[in-house]
Amino acid sequence: MRFDLSILWPHLPFLWKGAVLSAEVCLLAIIGSVVLGALVAIARTSSAKPLRWLALAYVDLFRNVPFLVQLFFFYYGLPELGIYIDAFTTGVIALSIAGGAFASDAIRSGILAIEPGIIEAAEVSGLSRRVIFTRIVLPIALRTAIRPLGAVLVNMILTSSILSAITLNELTGSGRIVASDTFRPFEVYAVLLVFYAALTYAVSIAVNLLHVRLNRGISQDVA
Question: What CA–CA distance (Å, rounded) separates 119 from 141?
């Protein structure tokens, strides 16, 4: 078999469209997962037991159920209840909910790592609990959790390839169509392999640089 990438040239616009769709889904999903993860982390560190139990149940459920099952539940199961969601929105919601379960652990670890003296000093200054949490605790926790959150983002990029199972023609779905049309799956999936590897590697480097920048001047034990 002769390796020939030239057969993909006519299909590059279609593959590019799939790549852009993947990027849109992942961008919206990472925002959703961080917001949801922060809310769950707050609930898990709350003094209210019902909130802690509810948050823990959410994390345990979505961390221990295959993502494909979650995806099919939202896309094929919810219509049985009269709830119809398009493939793009379903992908964003499913990735956000699944990613939120992992992001919550990272943010919760960042919250628990904060020195008690910082919070005590803020309380002595007369700041309200809401201000302390939103202006002091959460920013420090997010800064500490940058690297774990980066791992969540990388995993989300890789997991987004499963969205083709619900007819969403993101990059992997587009690649599958091109492979079917050209009968050259080796070249198509070789390109996708290199693309995903390069993208996740670039994201990992960017996350590390962001971590260094945000934690500049802070000892590694604290950061």
Answer: 12
Count of residues for the chain?
223
- Tell me the pLDDT of the chain (223 aa) as tens digits: 677 788 889 999 999 999 999 999 999 999 999 999 999 998 998 888 999 999 999 999 999 999 999 999 999 999 999 999 999 999 999 999 999 999 999 898 888 888 878 878 887 888 887 788 778 888 888 888 888 899 999 999 999 999 999 989 999 999 999 999 988 899 999 999 999 999 899 989 999 998 888 777 654 444 4
Q: How far is CA 220 from CA 25, 148, 204, 211, 212, in A?
A: 33, 15, 18, 11, 10
Question: How far is Cα 134 from Cα 112, in angstroms, rounded to an integer?
Answer: 15
Q: How far apart are the first and last CA of the chain?
A: 51
How far, in whole angstroms, is CA 30 from its chain's centroid? 4
Q: Are 33 and 155 in contact (CB under 8 A)?
A: no
Q: Which two tokens stand for residue 164?
A: 């083709």
In sequence order, what E strands does the chain have?
A: none
Two tokens, residue 217: 């001047």
Whole-prediction pTM: 0.86
* CATH numbers and ranges of domains, the chain: 5-214 (1.10.3720.10)
For 162, other C-beta atoms within 10 Å of its C-beta total 20
